[in-house]
Amino acid sequence: MADGLAAGAGGAVTGAASAAGATVDGVADGVAGAVRGLPSELANLFDEDDDVHYIIVDEDRYPESAQHIEQAQDGTSWRGATPVPGYNPQDSEVTIDRPGADFNRREALRGIEGRGGAYLDRDEGPPAVFKWEEGKAPSVKYIDASDNRGAGASIGTQLRGLDRGSEVTIVVG
User: Fold this and answer.
1) What's the pTM value of the predicted model, to 2 decimals?
2) Which of 71, 127, 67 is CA-nearest to residue 94?
């Protein structure tokens, strides 16, 4: 009789484990399907027929750069450590102009003391690698040097393969 109870209990445990495994497998399949669908859903946020390329500045990895971009696009410009609210918002759509980057950087940084403190860089918004609209001075804000340089490297990587004159849209994500 004890053998019968053990067999019955063993069968119940095996059945419960099997059911739990099926539930876990089902949840895992659902999650895997959702994750597989995620890139296409993200891609659908942007018009695939659009010739504009999107440059994404990761707000988790480069929070100060991302904040500066959002501020400049919302109309708060900076001159070093001083915010200038009510300024003309910077465009999110910009044109690549690598040959003009050195000139743009010199012009943007003119009159703003180098390094606003230890480990700070002057961040141009929009970045110097893009053509700036006439009459619209770029925003220049002191931000953490590693944040600024990391965001710059990320932007540079995303620009690979794009030619001078290509339009891109800078977004924070």
Assistant:
1) 0.70
2) 127
10 and 93 part of one domain = no
Other beta carbons within 10 Å of 153: 11
Residues 129 and 64 in one domain: yes
DSSP β-ladder status, 77-80 and 82-84: antiparallel
DSSP state of 98: G
Task: Identify the H or E element spanning 159.
Answer: helix 145-159
Distance CA 136, CA 172 (A): 21
Cα–Cα distance measured from residue 47 to residue 25, given in angstroms and rounded to the nearest whole number:
35
Same domain flag for 105 and 138: yes
- DSSP 8-state secondary structure symbol assigned to residue 173: -
Same domain, 134 and 157: yes
- Please write the tens of the pLDDT for every residue from 25-36: 554 455 444 444
Count of structural domains within the chain: 2
Report the C-alpha gap between 18 and 85 in whole angstroms: 63
Domain range enclosing 2: 1-45
61: amino acid identity, one letter: R
Contact between 15 and 129 under an 8 Å Cβ cutoff? The reply is no
Burial of 62 (0-12, 13-18, 19+ CB in 10 A): buried
